[in-house]
Design a protein that fits this description.
Elements (H helix, E strand, L loop, with lengths): L3 H9 L6 H16 L12 H17 L3 H14 L8 H11 L4 H6 L4 H11 L5 H7 L1
């Protein structure tokens, strides 16, 4: 059961991006971060090429989102890194909208903790990726 605070926050906001899309981006970001030579000692391909493909896939995914969805992603990252509280959602989203440009994907992918921040931001708003992750197994 959701706490009263989280329920109130959810009643007052509507995400432009579905929590499922955010969860998918979190999973893709973690796959991108997890690829290294230690976990794949002989993958049969060039690791640097694999990394480039992962970056391109994640970049394309983020770039394919609407402007409002990209703004929500940035706002969720800022919320997740404890720059704001859940009650500040409308303020953080407004700030993300003012800062929006055509480099959202590069900005997000450039942060090595983007998956953690997105997940924490969703959590502060009362959402979880747990069911989404279970469905993907």
């Amino acid at each position: 059961m959701k706490s009263k605070t989280k329920q109130t926050v959810n009643d007052e906001l509507t995400l432009a991006i579905s929590p499922e899309k955010v969860c998918f981006i979190i999973i893709k970001a973690r796959e991108f971060d997890a690829k290294d030579e230690t976990t794949e000692p002989d993958p049969g391909s060039n690791p640097s090429d694999d990394r480039d493909i992962s970056v391109e896939e994640l970049t394309s995914l983020i770039n394919s989102l609407s402007e409002d969805e990209q703004i929500d992603l940035v706002a969720l990252v800022w919320l997740g890194r404890d720059d704001y509280s859940a009650g500040d959602w409308s303020t953080v989203r407004d700030e993300a909208a003012r800062a929006h440009n055509n480099r959202t994907a590069e900005y997000l992918i450039g942060d090595p903790l983007v998956a953690d921040f997105l997940e924490e931001g969703l959590s502060k708003l009362g959402y979880s990726c747990e069911e989404f992750e279970i469905e993907r197994l």
